[in-house]
Write a structure and sequence with these properties.
By secondary structure, this protein is an alpha+beta fold. The protein is built from eight helices and eleven strands. Strands 1, 2, 3, 4, 5, 6, 7, 8, 9, 10 and 11 form an eleven-stranded mixed β-sheet that branches. The model has no long low-confidence stretch (mean pLDDT about 95).
């Protein structure tokens, strides 16, 4: 879940400063430098939203509704180098889900990053934009398409109000698929791959390499790019990249198109489904 709802389990404000540092140390090891920087940026946005509130809304437990310490950390299973175990870090606009087997991260999706405001138009924040590359590369690619290519990629003049997969436990490829990677010219393929890598490279290098290999084995030629809504910033827009094993969505429609939701889903192994199924089939 990526909305600011009431969650069970301990939040950052329940941990000591030393324990919080340990939690962020785990995240540093699970994410790339860029992925960790985005996580920190999104938490900073929660403080900005709190500062912007004229009336400070409180939860039933007396804690602020907007709170950079209102992010929850969970451990599943028994942490050990020879076991299967997992960890989650989740709160408003962040959902990070990891599973390790034999001391290697084998699943790290869904990964959700959001940003509100998408661009912080306050002088002291100098137009801070946490998910800037995701936005800019998307616009670069769609605006380089020819009229014929755009007729295939653009599936709606109006962007959907939310990522289509929402918070579904299991997701599949979406229709229409959009334009195939094979229908792009060399320049467009380069932009497409740069955009894809922005999402893949949010993870630590080992998992990023494994995820990239999985996508390549399923076939880069089987990837598609689809767009909906405005072709320029300032109005609602949406895009997705998908293939046999992958779904990436980006949506910016709320808050006068200044409120971003993005997600990476592994269609074969979200929440370590494939890994855990193999484990239970072979061990139990």
């Amino acid at each position: 879940s990526y909305i600011p709802q009431v969650r069970t389990g301990p939040a950052l404000y329940d941990f000591t400063p030393a324990q919080r540092q340990q939690i962020f140390d785990i995240l540093k090891l699970s994410l790339s430098e860029a992925g960790f920087r985005k996580t920190q940026g999104i938490i900073t946005l929660e403080q900005i939203l709190y500062n912007m509130q004229e009336t400070k809304t409180l939860l039933p437990n007396g804690k602020p509704y907007r709170d950079p310490l209102r992010y929850h950390f969970y451990i599943f299973g028994e942490p050990h180098e020879n076991t299967i175990w997992g960890w989650k870090f989740e709160g408003h606009h962040i959902s990070l889900n990891f599973t390790a087997e034999n001391n290697i991260i084998v699943s790290a999706t869904p990964l959700f990053f959001g940003a509100n405001p998408g661009v912080v138009r306050l002088e002291e924040y100098d137009n801070m934009e946490v998910l800037k590359e995701e936005a800019e590369l998307g616009f670069t690619l769609v605006n380089d398409l020819s009229k014929k290519q755009l007729s295939t990629a653009l599936f709606s003049e109006i962007a959907p109000p939310e990522i289509v997969s929402r918070m579904e436990r299991t997701v599949h490829e979406l229709t229409p698929k959009g334009i195939s990677y094979t229908e792009l010219n060399d320049k467009q393929k380069g932009v497409f791959m740069n955009l894809l890598n922005i999402y893949i490279d949010n993870y630590e290098v080992g998992f990023s390499q494994n995820l990239r290999t999985k996508i390549e084995e399923a076939g880069i030629d089987n990837l598609y790019f689809a767009w909906a809504g405005s072709l320029e910033p300032g109005a609602g827009h949406y895009y997705r990249i998908q293939g046999p094993t992958l779904l990436i969505e980006y949506d910016n429609t709320q808050g006068n198109a200044n409120h971003v939701h993005s997600v990476v889903r592994d269609l074969t192994n979200d929440f370590a489904d494939d890994v855990l199924k193999h484990h239970y089939d072979s061990q139990h």
